[in-house]
Structures are given as C-alpha cells and as structure tokens.
Specification:
By secondary structure, the chain is α/β, with parallel strands linked by helices. It has one domain: Rossmann fold (3-Layer(aba) Sandwich). The protein has helices at residues 2-35, 98-104, 126-146, 170-181, 203-208, 215-222, 227-237, 241-251, 256-269, 277-289, 327-331, 352-355, 359-371; strands at residues 52-57, 60-65, 77-80, 109-113, 163-168, 186-192, 298-300, 303-305, 314-319, 341-346, 378-380. α11 (327-331) links the parallel β9 and β10. The longest helix is centred in the N-terminal third of the chain and has 34 residues, at 2-35.
C-alpha cells in the first residue's frame, strides 16, 4: 500500500514539473510574439497526425491530412478553429483525434491553421478573416482536392468547386458567416459548440454586453488582446474548475491514459494566441453588442445577409455541460435559417466535446454527415464524469 502511495506522489511530482516546463515555454513564446515588432517565425504545429502544408498566406496555413482510402470522388472538408485557441485541439491525441478519424473514414480532410498573429495584423477587420482568408483557404483546398496539379486544369466532376466546412466555437460562427456569404460554394456545414445567440443568461454574455464592456477602450489601450487576459477571463467563468481539475488528476494519477489526456489538454488550454485589435473589436460589436445573427442584421463586405434564405444542410453539435456556449445559444439557429438541421447533443463540456471521452460520438456523427449517411437528431448521454471545459 505504501509503495502505491509513493508511486502516486512521485508520478504527480514528475507530471507537475514536466507540465510547468511546457507551460513556461509556451507562455514565454506567447509574450515574445505579442511584443514582437517584426515578423513572427512560423509556429510549430503540436498535433499528432502527419500532414503537409498545401497553402500558406502570411501566417495562415492550410494543412492536409492524407488517409489511405480513395477520396477522389469525395467533397473535401475544411476544419476552422477559433481565432483565440490553437488549431490542434482537433488533433490532440493519437487515440482521440478528429482529423485522424475523418481522414481514416475516407474524407479529404484539411485544417485551417491561423498561425500566430503579430502587430502587422492589428489593422485587419473581422470581415477580412471571415471572407477573404477563409475564401483563400477554401480555394486552396479545392485546388488540391479537385484539380490536376500538373496542368492546373480543373477536373470535370460537377462537384469540383464544392467544399464542406466544420467550425469549432468562434470558428463555427465564422464558418456560418462565410457560408452565408458564399452559399453556392458550401456543400455542408458542421457547427461544433458554436455560439449563435450572444445575449443570454450566461456569464460571458453579461460580461461582454455593450453596457458593461467598453471594447474600444480595451483594444485602443492594448492593441492586440493578450492571450493571458483571455485565458484568465475564461477561467473566472468557472473558478472552482481549477481545483476540481487538480483533484481529478490526483485521483487518477496511476491511470496512464487519464494522465496523458491531462497533459495534452493542459498544453492546448494554455497555448493561446493574441487576437488582432480590429478583428476583436469588430467581433465583439457584431456578436455580443449587436447580436447580429439572431437579429438578422449582419452586414459583411457591404453585403447584407438574410439568414432566412440560408439553405445549406447543417449538423449542429452541442455540449450538454458547456458553460462557454450554452445549448440554447446554438440551438436557436434552427429558428433563424431555412436549412435542414440535424442536432446532436453530447454529454460533455466545451472542450470535452472536441477531445474528451465522448468526443468519438462527435467524430462518428461528423463523418457520417459529410459522407452522405443519415445522422439522426439525438442526445448522447454518458455514464461517467467526463466534463472537460
């Protein structure tokens, strides 16, 4: 018994030292990038699935994950992460990776990696990211998946110009807006833990409202929004979760799989990036102040978007324990658009739905939906305490 206790504490000490070193390196890198006055060097991708870069524009990269199945007749899917967090949350662990599952299912799978923004990006508006940059990424995917690279001649399939999108959290909101701007291009849209209604009873909603949050004062003072500021804000939404997290780690320290999950998750959670000044200002005003999607008052690049005319098929995956994006915030979408919407609710938290124990249910739903198989609207309830946030 005493040997087990010693082993227990020894493992916790080693784990803490290893994680502290990793988090310190990430923190130093983020601060250096935030203060940099020159070009930021290319960041290392910390996902687990082999890839190749098929396109790069400034800090943005499009990563391709090559599977073993023939994908020539399949419409490619581009995964779009939040601008706040690193993209590899969708490729976090070897046994639990969305990109790995999709490429092994036979889907041409690509990931948009925003890269690490610097001061040179602070003047770029939110609509530039939603329209121009996502369009560049989509074009790159279509060229790679559907066109003959040797001649540049498009293949003759009638679906050659189509692409499907999957957006996670803020990336989902951006994917929805881009799809509304270019409906003729988007085959299917998958939303994962995506906020739609930004004015509700959640803590973040109250904090970010126009009456209480002067976003102009913040960005005019700071420039880019510091990742440490963003991360501390999310932690304060549920402050006791940090104590619960370490308690759970202590109780499962002899479980190799649980410890590995903890290490990978902590690396990602603390590996945040700054949000460029004007993009952050525009996003807050459009979504949290105007609640423009719900109020059907979105104007991007001079184009008014009427969501009542939006007909692209949607898979809307929500997390039952999500305290960042409550179910009601996402579920309201079915009342705003004319699309056929399939809703899947998974018993997990905001991060757990993407990489936790129940994430495989999400993987399967996404693969079926984009491969043309029927997915039924459902609520997937688990029997454990997996509530990563």
């Amino acid at each position: 018994m005493s040997e087990n206790i010693l082993e227990h504490f020894d493992r916790l000490i080693n784990l803490s030292l290893e994680n502290c070193q990793i988090l310190t390196e990430i923190g130093i890198s983020n601060v250096e990038n935030l203060l940099a006055e020159q070009e930021v060097e290319k960041e290392e991708y910390r996902g687990v699935t082999p890839f190749e870069v098929v396109y790069q524009f400034d800090s943005l990269r499009v990563l391709k994950f090559q599977g073993t199945k023939d994908t020539s007749e399949k419409i490619p899917i581009l995964l779009i992460p939040s601008m706040i967090n690193r993209s590899y949350v969708m490729d976090l662990m070897k046994d639990n990776t969305l990109v790995g599952f999709l490429k092994d299912s036979g889907l041409p799978t690509y990931l948009l990696d925003w890269g690490n923004p610097g001061p040179r990006h602070n003047h770029l508006p939110f609509e530039f990211y939603v329209d121009d940059l996502i369009k560049l990424a989509c074009d790159a995917v279509v060229r790679d998946a559907c066109c003959k690279k040797t001649t540049g001649t498009p293949c003759k399939g009638n679906k050659c110009n189509k692409i499907s999108l999957l957006g996670y959290c803020m990336g989902g909101t951006m994917a929805l807006l881009h799809s509304a701007l270019h409906p003729e291009r988007i085959n299917k849209l998958t939303l994962l833990a995506t906020p739609i209604n930004f004015i509700d009873d959640s803590t973040l909603s109250h904090w970010a409202r126009k009456e209480t949050f002067n976003v102009d004062a913040l960005v005019n003072t700071l420039g880019a929004v510091d990742p440490l500021l963003l991360q501390s804000s999310f932690l304060m939404v549920k402050p006791l979760s940090q104590l619960q997290k370490w308690k759970t780690l202590y109780e499962s320290a002899l479980n190799q799989k649980s410890v590995d999950s903890f290490i990978h998750l902590e690396r990602w959670v603390t590996d945040n990036i700054p949000v460029p000044r004007e993009a952050y200002r525009d996003y807050l005003k459009l979504c949290y102040h105007k609640n423009a999607v719900v109020n059907n008052k979105v104007v991007l690049k001079g184009q008014e978007i009427d969501f009542r005319n939006f007909k692209t098929p949607i898979l809307n995956i929500m997390a039952k324990k999500d305290h960042i994006v409550p179910i009601q915030s996402s579920q309201v979408l079915k009342d705003l658009v004319s699309s056929e919407i399939t809703e899947v609710i998974i018993d997990a938290g905001h991060v757990g739905v993407a990489m936790g124990k129940k994430a495989r249910e999400m993987f399967q739903a996404v693969a079926k939906f984009n491969l043309g198989d029927r997915v039924k609207s459902c609520c997937i309830v688990g029997d454990d305490d997996d509530d990563y946030n």
